Amino acid sequence: MRTLRNLTPGLALVLALAACGGGAGEEPADPSPGGQGSWRVESLTTGGRTLHAPAAARLDLAEDEAKGNYGCNGFTAKVVPEGGAALTVTPGMSTTMACENQAFEIEFAKLFRGRLTLDRGPDRLTLKTADGSTLAMTSEPAAPDAPLTVTEWTVESLISGESVSSVPAAAAGWARFTLAADGTASGSLGCNRFSSKATVDGATVVFGPLTTTRMACQGPQGEVERTLTGLLGSGPLTWKVQGGRLTLTAPDGAGLGAKAGSAAE
To answer: How many CA atoms lie within 13 A of 156 on its CB side?
Structure first.
């Protein structure tokens, strides 16, 4: 205000209007520069074809980083926004599981890198590459988290520290379990069936001694079974559910990833 008082009345008025953004025809600033927010990926278009996204495909954009899921594998990236018009993406880490929707995942990973222009609507965001390929997203809320108990979980991946690997194809779908509301756990370790007491305490779950059938298990199913037997018997496991996916992790970094199936009776 002191500065304006020292100026001529006409110049002071011009500067005041400019500071208030009162010029005719000016567009309001993008309330979310760089497309920041949580987005559910709907589809991508590249090379003249459109691929529809798996239900788990998502993108979370922050000011200088991104993380998300290609549809099965998770990823991170560094992001440099250019106001609300574009952003430059440098891919970071990603998991490398063999996934059902591999074609979509490969194309998603190819598109989400380099300089991308933004087309932002009230509930939508489209990212466009230099060659015209697009990644279409919506801010529609994600599916609610499945409950830890009464859900049948099918083991899809095995975790070892920073490494995540998919369950071998020959053993896929065999390892599954349910934590019942009465505190019991039961299911299959990949070959033999098991039952156990399970105690959930906040963000951790502890499995008691496993009672199992006694079939001799060889090959991939036997390997998965030995890994899961060791994991479930290792003590407190940290659990986390995101949408329809569960992660159980031991203090040493070993763990499993599982997908929600139907609710158990």
So the answer is: 20
